[in-house]
């Protein structure tokens, strides 16, 4: 910071130093002054078209818009002079000329910037007697409800679509009073970040369609939590009323998700009330029948009695909290089994070093990268918020070049060169005379992003070793910069690896446990593989929250809680440990997963050594010290040797991307009516109606 040039400005008589090049609005905020605004947003380009942020500058003949006015040395700014107050009143009067009196029925009520500023600068009457203009509502997809009469033409939505989402489908047509915001041709938005338009709209023109007419903000309770619908670990706020979750919003965390959230994470919460498992079930006479917890536990205990440990196995799902995973691992240990696998996709991950399976540069490290190679991944659908960060780096740095290895024709929302289809080119990627190869060789901070899906193939171990070797040849494995980045798909995957839930030597992986490999199989929220592969003679316990495909194969069902209904610890793709908080309680007799496992261990006479939340979290820290560093990102040390790939060779086949439909990826999204509507709209691209209308 000592190298940053500063200048002196005076704000309302207070002299201060600010970095050269900041705007008058930013200088006022540094001085602690609140400046009203509608079009200005910290993460978007400056438009300067609402004029609400007017301030007075000494020697200026008229008020200036502070958001677009750069400060100069010695400048004197007044933010609350009579001229400023009257100018803002005039602007507010113009803004309200055509604005409808919708506040009593507007979903933005209570959270509306225009409401707040009208209290400060508005009048109790209007001098405008002509008819208000009317604008037709636009269809922009199943997630956003438009009431365009309320639009004040701030253009935030247009700039967000073009600059952050990278899908410039929103824009303005017409001029003057005839100007309207829309999608030019009426269609559903094709961005995975559409819900953020609701947050940045300063009025009620763009509101949440699933949330329409559901509640007022002052009726809601809030719980801060962590999203697990992808591996970014976005910080979220869950708003609920009584037993009902009504909406999920992003929280600001500049190191992880800034202030954005993917649509799957924001809108899939309606599944909490659909297709839920709310009581235990036990299969009798070939049919699942309701049972008590005691009956369910006794049925499992009776079936496991006398079964040797090597004939018992467990599979962990992709969104499970670390507490439940630890309890399952310890339970299997008491039963004499080491057959625990967290890789439903069969990815050839190497858990011997944390550097082999985390996003080592950190998500914020993307801002330092000057060349990015994406291997076997489409971050736009696997991690939309992370992809937006890559796009921001690409848009703000002419020095950044991006290339990808995988299926041709990917639209990543930024310019990216297609380098090839398969892993066979990784050995020579930086060689040759091409512009991108030269960029790779000259890059100071190259970043190799390896998609987890690239390892879910027979030569996965060789692909992992080849990607690591590529990072080494590019000089990306340094003490000050580790440019090897594994991009996982869900919020529970890294925590499982931190707990070592990968079968070691002599233990059985998922493939070996299927088709009769074990006599008893415990599925902990594991719905990511085909249950038809489980042998008919295998006794299956399904512990989860939705009656999805794996539950239909179970002999005993134990109802668990979703990530929104329990306290839990999760680790995101960069290895950051975070805590999720309970918003509502699970329905019926459903319980937190680790408590179910602890209760069963008591039934079989082998109680697990923790009875409460504090004890199991202490056990987590004992199992791996990283779980004691909540919210802190500690980079993994670069190991002396690369991932184990003895005898493995890279095959020549092209990569297959793991997520075909962004909206439908797991048991929870398969149960979501909103996600189903989004999937249909994306496939058909035709207008459709939601129940709220």
Automatic annotation (TrEMBL):
InterPro entries registered for this protein in UniProt: 2Fe-2S_ferredoxin-like_sf (IPR036010), 2Fe-2S_ferredoxin-type (IPR001041), Mopterin_OxRdtase (IPR006656), Mopterin_OxRdtase_4Fe-4S_dom (IPR006963), NADH_UbQ_OxRdtase_75kDa_su_CS (IPR000283), NADH_UbQ_OxRdtase_ferredoxin (IPR054351), NADH_UbQ_OxRdtase_Gsu (IPR010228), NADH_UbQ_OxRdtase_Gsu_4Fe4S-bd (IPR019574)
Catalytic reaction annotation: a quinone + NADH + 5 H(+)(in) = a quinol + NAD(+) + 4 H(+)(out)
Domain 4Fe-4S Mo/W bis-MGD-type: 220-276
Domain 2Fe-2S ferredoxin-type residues, every copy: 5-83
Cofactor note: Binds 1 [2Fe-2S] cluster per subunit.
All residue ranges annotated as the 4Fe-4S His(Cys)3-ligated-type domain in the record: 83-122
EC number in record: 7.1.1.-
CDD domains per the UniProt record, alphabetical: fer2, MopB_Res-Cmplx1_Nad11
Pfam families: Fer2_4 (PF13510), Fer4_NDSU1 (PF22151), Fer4_Nqo3 (PF22117), Molybdopterin (PF00384), NADH-G_4Fe-4S_3 (PF10588), NADH_dhqG_C (PF09326)
Keywords: 2Fe-2S, 4Fe-4S, Iron, Iron-sulfur, Metal-binding, NAD, Quinone, Translocase
Needed cofactors: [2Fe-2S] cluster; [4Fe-4S] cluster
SMART domains cross-referenced by the UniProt entry: NADH-G_4Fe-4S_3
Family membership: Belongs to the complex I 75 kDa subunit family.
Function: NDH-1 shuttles electrons from NADH, via FMN and iron-sulfur (Fe-S) centers, to quinones in the respiratory chain. Couples the redox reaction to proton translocation (for every two electrons transferred, four hydrogen ions are translocated across the cytoplasmic membrane), and thus conserves the redox energy in a proton gradient.
PANTHER family recorded: NADH-UBIQUINONE OXIDOREDUCTASE 75 KDA SUBUNIT, MITOCHONDRIAL (PTHR43105:SF13), RESPIRATORY NITRATE REDUCTASE (PTHR43105)
Protein name: NADH-quinone oxidoreductase
Record organism: Roseomonas elaeocarpi
